[in-house]
Amino acid sequence: MATQFDLIVIGAGPGGYVAAIRAAQLGMKVACVEKSRTLGGTCLNVGCIPSKAMLDSSELFHLSKERFAKHGIKFDGLSLDLPAMLARKAEVVKSLTDGVRFLFRKNKIEPVFGAGKITAPDTVQVALNEGGSAELKARNILVATGSEPVALPFLPFDGRVVVDSTGALSFNRVPEHLVVIGAGYIGLELGSVWNRLGSKVTVLEFLPRITPTADQELGEMLRRSLVKQGLEIHLETKVTGATVEGDRAVVKAQGKDGSESTYPCDRVLVAVGRRAYTQGLGLAELGIEVDARTGRVPVDAHFRTKVPSILAIGDAIEGPMLAHKAEDEGIACVELLAGKAGHVNYDTIPGVIYTWPEMAGVGQTEEQLKESGRQYKVGKFPFLANGRAKAMDESEGVVKILADAATDRVLGVHILGPRASEMIAEAVAVMEFAGSAEDIARTCHAHPTLSEATREAALAVDGRAIHS
Ligand code: FAD
Ligand code: NAI
């Protein structure tokens, strides 16, 4: 194994592995240290990919049970083979993590499997997974160590009854009653999975709304839709304690009016946020103080920490904890290192919650615009009036465009609806080019497509939607 590099990346998640590949493309000699046995980080192993695999599988199960008959497709004897579903998920994960391994070989990146610790501004000590240790040196070190789930102090994860997202991606049987604490991304996605597969799902959320960072109007529409699908959602409910006995738990919570309630269940998913995973890296010893509450590493506009040769990106630094944000930062960071003009536009990072309907948003929410005092116009168009959505029998939801009242520049786009995750890309591109609602309205969209709803919403900004 070589020991001298231009760049050592610690962590092979979407931030780290993408940074490593881009750095290699730019001619750097790169090592990537990863403490797990596979590459790909949280995203590929226990995050984005397996959760979407389970969302897609459970959606097919739900559609075949509840919706196929309406399309004239009838059959008998539908049943769930959970082990096969989990095996397919594992297969998807394996093919993608193997794919990263292939990309490392192709780009001559040295993977080093073990836990890395920065012992000097140019040195990483690795406790190798296979035993022993290695000392690596480089001109620059990139911290891309990601994040970990936050536990509730009175309800520690036990990996069996009380689980984090990783546990809830691999239940070996469908829980009878799953209590989910937190109505954010993980709670609603994984709550949806198990609801579709037959669990009773109760979601307890501290705040008066679900998906606190999303546009509230659409968040409320999503809440109603999820309740219709069978999820029980309690807002303004503070979990105060829990007891676990054998294979069961009782979660205690307090409502806004102070009333106490108890939720007996057989599984609890705690999904109350994630914290940067920066402990044990040796940062404090080098004078780099992380934020005490979030664990995040402070960096400047070029992703440099207080020690200029040590950089950080992804979930380990400020900003939304999203894979594409981590990837973009990884690329920008190493391009800046190579003297290029790396850049991340934080105003146009989309967020998607892969429930059904999906909810996607980019730019400012209506609440943020109100708070900032900016004058804006709103255009909305329901999928109920979209031909393709009707043909698909997926006419729930709306496209909402927020544009500057004076200039018509698009300030935010929020979509609740079928394939909102794919549709949001058009909005991101328009916003990247500082486009206006009129630009979208004048762009020819294929018919019949879901994206025509975006055009109609843009027309609605000017009060001239055709189909509503
Ligand atoms: P990570 O992916 O967390 O990778 C960090 C890596 O560093 C890990 O492999 C870890 O083992 C390694 N590491 C840590 N410390 C050390 C050390 N000392 N030495 C060596 N290696 C170390 N985001 C989306 O955009 N879309 C989604 O659909 C989505 N779904 C998600 C679903 C779930 C259930 C979860 C939990 C997260 C999801 N996310 C999603 C968030 C996404 O996974 C993260 O934002 C993303 O993985 C962050 O990338 P990263 O490279 O910063 O860190
Ligand atoms: P989250 O921040 O999305 O949601 C946590 C929710 O828990 C919030 O609504 C919060 O108000 C609530 N909460 C906090 N403490 C609580 C308490 N004591 N009792 C009841 N409710 C409480 O965090 P989550 O779902 O754990 O996901 C972590 C991160 O992972 C997300 O923020 C996101 O960045 C990422 N992620 C992204 C996905 C995607 O892009 N589709 C999917 C899954 C995760």
Short key terms for the protein model shown above:
FAD/NAD(P)-binding domain; Enolase-like, domain 1; five-stranded mixed barrel; alpha/beta; binds flavin-adenine dinucleotide; 3 domains; 468 residues; binds 1,4-dihydronicotinamide adenine dinucleotide
- Total separate domains: 3
Give the CATH architecture of the largest domain. 3-Layer(bba) Sandwich
Strand tally is: 21
Separate helix tally? 13
Q: Calculate Rg over CA atoms.
A: 23 Å
Using the coordinates above, name the CATH class of the largest domain.
Alpha Beta
CATH topology of the largest domain: FAD/NAD(P)-binding domain
Low-confidence stretches: none
Fraction of residues in helix: 25-40%
* Separation of the first and last Cα atoms: 65 Å
State the strand order across the main sheet: 1-2-3-4-5
The small molecules bound here are:
flavin-adenine dinucleotide, 1,4-dihydronicotinamide adenine dinucleotide
Largest sheet: 5 strands, mixed, barrel
Oligomer: single chain
Can you put this structure into words, describing what you see?
There is one protein chain. The protein is an alpha/beta fold and 468 residues long. The protein folds into three domains: 4-148 and 275-344, FAD/NAD(P)-binding domain, CATH 3.50.50; 162-272, FAD/NAD(P)-binding domain, CATH 3.50.50.60; 348-461, Enolase-like, domain 1 (2-Layer Sandwich), CATH 3.30.390. Helices cover 32% and strands 26% of the residues. The chain has 13 helices and 21 strands. The chain has helices spanning 14-25, 41-46, 48-66, 82-106, 165-168, 185-196, 216-229, 323-337, 366-372, 387-392, 420-432, 437-441, 452-461; strands at residues 4-10, 30-34, 110-120, 123-128, 133-143, 147-149, 162-163, 177-181, 200-204, 232-234, 238-245, 248-254, 260-265, 267-270, 274-276, 310-312, 351-353, 358-363, 376-382, 398-404, 410-417. The strands form five sheets. A five-stranded mixed β-barrel has the order 1-2-3-4-5. A five-stranded parallel sheet has the order 7-14-8-9-10. Helix 1 (14-25) packs parallel to helix 8 (323-337), helix 3 packs antiparallel against helix 4 (82-106) and helix 3 packs parallel to helix 6. It is globular, with a radius of gyration of 23 Å. The structure holds flavin-adenine dinucleotide and 1,4-dihydronicotinamide adenine dinucleotide. Flavin-adenine dinucleotide binds at residues 10-16, 33-36, 41-43, 47-48, 51, 115-116, 144-147, 165, 186, 277, 281, 314-316, 321-324, 326, 354.
